[in-house]
Design brief:
mainly beta, Jelly Rolls, 1 helix
Length: about 120
């Protein structure tokens, strides 16, 4: 057991949309990611996904609404719900997801990082 300093971990990388593992519990990865711009529309067929905004502002787009998240706010996206994160300015988030979760879910593209390829920092 050890303390994990989120500011230090976030300072260790710059690339947006590339989640980094900072811990694991109960079959879930705890991940940090930096966001800037628009991600891809996607869904996770078998996994729920929790977004916690550490700094900045993130809009989670859904087919019927946009959920605006500021620092310290969370949104849990149920499995099977199509969504697209958008950060008009740089933002940092923490994610809680099953270890098998692929960041782009059912979508393919330049942002795709397979679960087995995630970097631990």
């Amino acid at each position: 057991m050890k303390a994990i300093n989120l500011a230090e971990k976030l300072a260790s990388f710059n690339e947006p949309w590339t989640p980094k593992i900072i811990g694991e519990l109960n079959g879930q990865y705890v991940k940090l990611a930096k966001l800037e711009g628009e991600f891809v529309w996607h869904q996770h067929e078998h996994e729920d996904e929790m977004f916690l905004v550490i700094n900045g502002h993130v809009d989670l787009h859904f087919s019927d609404k946009i959920v605006a998240l500021d620092e310290g706010e969370i949104c849990i996206v149920p499995r099977g719900v199509e969504h697209k994160p958008v950060a008009k300015r740089p933002a940092s988030i923490m994610l809680f997801e099953p270890v098998s979760t692929r960041n782009t879910g059912n979508a393919e593209g330049g942002y795709t990082v397979e679960a087995a390829e995630l970097e631990e920092i």
